[in-house]
Design brief:
Distance between the termini: 127 Å
Strand content: 15-25%
Helix content: 25-40%
Structural class: alpha+beta
Largest sheet: 4 strands, antiparallel
Number of helices: 17
Number of strands: 20
Strand order of the largest sheet: 8-9-12-13
Pfam family, one: BACK
Keywords: Kelch repeat, Repeat
Protein name: BTB domain-containing protein
InterPro entries: BACK, BTB/POZ_dom, Kelch-typ_b-propeller, Kelch_1, SKP1/BTB/POZ_sf
CATH superfamily of one domain: Kelch-type beta propeller
Length: 480
């Protein structure tokens, strides 16, 4: 019998090995659903009874006997401390600085039980500690608690605390309240006590919900007057955040342009001069170095007009629509149809917010989608913003497309282009007061597809193409 291979110990082990190597089915696995909770409860009891402790955390005058393995698996901070060559890995007592004992007690409650009592008095210290010990879930819980307790009276402090601790959702919620309640909180002590750099961060926001920029200006002046001796050094940086272009010209003349505090600074005197010209010279407003963006609560927005778009995928709008693009949101709003389908018309907007449409190649799109050109237009229209339609005005002397229409101190200049047969050098000027076009000095050579702009009452033309080449020249037209 001893010679029988089937009864040898090796063959028995081989048999057992073959049984153990058999793949098991998921249905054969036993899962103790209560195991994790019991384990956590066991850790909690060991901590409470101070059994098997092997390290003591010292915070202020309080000692916390703990277990290295529990701390290490709970916190990457402690894992790095105990598994490296740091001196703390060999110490029985580890001092922790920049932490109070109450907060440490709450952190350990969380580590050993998975839960902790939060309050408005302790939550900020606890969130800071959770950041330090890399307890991400605890940090999220603290941030959610704070989010549910944000008020107008504490939103500024919560915002800068959240920024410092990289709690983005909490910071967004606090900033939303700051912006929406700015008119109220700007009178509160928390706002008036802000350091200059924090004030600049708040008043620079586009989304402040105020109907008038005057509210922001007055809030800044109130802040300056709390400690004028110390704060006047920040006058320029604070006032650079005020959007003077959005302030009423009457308020500017009565309350700002006569303010002796503002005129102490040479740089601010220059800014006030620019604002004065802004209100006087409406057709030169885009030339001035002022922030023109309205705040979130204002009743108007700056927008980009898209006229006669040849690239739209909607066939009914191609060449034949005016749309408005809101830069803040990217939203495109359809305004109206054009008087006719036009390719490369001239378009311009005056300082009085009047929209001009001139010339263009007349396009026809049949029901099959094919496009034909039926001549070049010399029509000129002004958009009626109340009726939302186009009002026909005096026709240009020349039919034009592929040309520039540029506003210079209230006059509209139609420059170059082509009339369907040849490239033009002619230039004509429209006077809205007389509703008449007048031919003026022509370009030095015929051009189309150029670009033009106005600056300080002068008309500039750059580039373009002629019948033989592409121009690299620039021209200046002297109006006076």
């Amino acid at each position: 019998m001893s010679g029988d291979p089937a009864s040898s110990p090796d063959s028995m082990l081989d048999g057992q090995s073959s049984i153990c190597d058999t793949p098991s089915s998921p249905d054969d696995r036993f899962v103790d659903e209560d195991r994790s909770m019991k384990l956590l409860q066991g850790f909690s009891k060991l901590y409470k009874d101070q059994e098997f402790v092997d390290v003591t955390l010292c915070v202020e005058d309080t000692e916390f006997p703990c277990h290295k393995n529990v701390l290490a698996v709970s916190s990457p901070f402690f894992m790095a401390m105990f598994s490296s060559n740091l001196a703390e890995s060999q110490q029985d007592k580890i001092p922790l600085k920049e932490l109070d004992s109450q907060t440490m007690s709450l952190v350990l409650d969380y580590i050993y039980t998975g839960q902790v009592m939060l309050s408005e008095d302790t939550v900020q210290h606890l969130l800071s500690a959770s950041n330090r010990f890399q307890l991400i879930s605890l940090r999220s819980g603290c941030a959610e608690f704070m989010m549910n307790h944000i008020t107008v009276s504490n939103c500024i402090g919560v915002y800068f605390f959240a920024i410092a601790h990289e709690c983005k959702v909490l910071a967004m919620k606090a900033k939303e309240i700051i912006n929406n309640q700015f008119s109220v909180l700007c009178k509160q002590q928390e706002f008036l006590s802000l350091p200059a750099d924090k004030l600049v961060e708040i008043i620079s926001d586009d989304e402040i919900n105020v109907g008038l920029e005057e509210t922001v200006f007055e809030a800044c002046m109130d802040w300056l007057q709390i400690e004028p001796t110390d704060r006047l050094q920040h006058l320029v940086s604070i006032m650079n955040c005020v959007r003077f272009a959005n302030i009423s010209s009457y308020y500017f003349c009565d309350k700002i342009d006569t303010n002796l505090v503002l005129k102490q600074s040479e740089k601010l005197r220059q800014t006030l001069d620019t604002v004065r010209y802004y209100h006087m010279l409406r057709n030169r407003q885009q030339e001035m170095d002022l922030n023109l963006m309205p705040r979130g609560g204002m009743s108007y927005e700056r927008a980009v007009m898209i006229i006669a778009n040849p690239y739209t995928e909607e066939s009914l709008k191609k060449y034949n629509s005016m749309e408005m693009l809101l830069p803040k949101t990217g939203e495109v709003i359809n305004i109206c149809k054009l008087p006719q389908s036009l390719y490369t018309p001239g378009c311009a907007i005056t300082g009085e917010n009047q929209i001009y449409l001139a010339g263009g190649a007349i396009r026809k799109i049949n029901y099959r989608g094919s496009i034909t050109t039926e001549g070049v237009s010399n029509n000129f229209y002004v958009f009626d913003q109340i009726e939302k339609n186009w009002q026909s005005k005096a026709k240009m002397h020349m039919s034009r497309s592929q040309f520039c229409l540029t506003i210079v101190d209230g006059y509209a200049f139609a420059i170059g282009g082509q009339d369907g047969t040849e490239i033009l050098s002619t230039v004509e000027r429209y006077d809205s007061n007389t509703n008449a076009w007048m031919l003026v000095a022509p370009l030095p050579k015929p051009l189309r597809f150029m670009t033009s702009t106005s600056h300080k009452g002068k008309l500039y033309v750059f580039g373009g193409e002629s019948t033989s080449d592409v121009s690299s020249s620039g021209f200046r037209y002297m109006l006076l």
